[in-house]
Amino acid sequence: MMTIMQKKTTAKTPQLRATQSRKEASHERIVEVAARAIRRSGYDGTGVADIMKEAGLTHGGFYAHFASREALLAEAADRARAEALGWTAQVVDAAPGAQGLERLTQAYLSDEHLNGAERGCAISALGSEMHRQAPEVRHVATRHIQELIDLVARQIPEGGERSAHDEAMVRISAMVGTLVLARAVDDPALSKSLREAALKYFAPADG
Predict the structure, then answer these.
(1) What predicted TM-score, i.e. pTM, was given to this entire model?
(2) How far is CA 57 from CA 15, 17, 63, 84, in A?
(3) CA-angle at 83, arms to 177 and 162, nearest 5°
(4) Count of beta carbons in the 10 Å neighbourhood of residue 56
(5) Which end of the chain is more exposed for a tag (fewer CB within 10 A), N or C?
C-alpha cells in the first residue's frame, strides 16, 4: 500500500506576521519616496543611499527589499505612473459635460503642475531620460504613455480629420513637450507664454 505523505503546514506566529508587516510597510515607504525622487531629481540624480535616508531606513537594508537599483526604479516608475493616471482620471471625471479633455489640458499645463514635478506626470518629468534606462524601467514608461493616450482618446469624439487615437497622440505629444520646454527655460514669461499658446491652440472652436 502506498502511503501519501501530507505536507505539514505551520501557522504564522504573531511575531512573524508583525515582522512581515513591518517589512511591507518599509517597502511601501521606500517606493513612495523613490517615486517622488525620480520625478524631482531624475533617474540619474536618484541615489539609493538618499532614498533610504529619506525613508528613515539604513542603506544596508536596501537589498532586503530589491534585487537591484534598477528594480527599485522600475517599481518607483510604476508607482509614479499609477499616481499620475489617477490624477488625470480624477480631473476628467470631475469635469462637467464634455469638458473633460479641456480641463485635463488646463490642469496639465497649469502653474501647479509646472512647479509640482515630484507629484505630477512622470512622462514630462522624466521623458528625456527614459530612453537611457534599463528595459524594465522603459517598459513602465511605455505602459504609462499608452494608458495616457487611451485615456485622452476616450474623451475625443470620432469623426474628425484624424481618428480619436491619432488625435490623442498629437495632443499628448504637445502637452508633454510644452511642459518640458516650460520647465526648461529660465524666463518665467516665456514659460507662461508657451503654455498659454498650447492652451489657445487646443481650445474648443466655440470657446
Answers:
(1) 0.83
(2) 21, 20, 12, 26
(3) 45
(4) 10
(5) N
Which among 126, 96, 100, 98 has a CA at the least distance from the CA of 34?
A: 126
Residue 56 CA neighbour count, 13 Å, CB half: 6
Q: Which position has the grid cell 476616450?
A: 154
Q: Which domain holds residue 132?
A: 68-202
Give residue for cell 517599481. Answer: 75
For residue 114, the domain's CATH number is: 1.10.357.10
Within a domain: 50: no
Per-residue pLDDT tens digits for 146-194: 999 999 999 988 766 679 999 999 999 999 999 999 999 999 999 999 9
Please give the angle made by the CA atoms of 74, 75 and 78, to the nearest 5 degrees: 90
Place of cell 534599463: 134
Q: In the chain, how many domains are there?
A: 1
Give the amino acid at 175: M
SS3 for 45? Answer: coil
DSSP string, 62-128: GGGT-SSHHHHHHHHHHHHHHHHHHHHHHHHHHS-TT-HHHHHHHHHTSHHHHH-GGGS-HHHHHGG
Retrieve residue 50's grid coordinates.
538618499
What are the φ and ψ backbone dihedral angles of 92, each rounded to 5 degrees?
A: -65, -45
How many CB atoms lie under 10 A from the CB of residue 126? 21
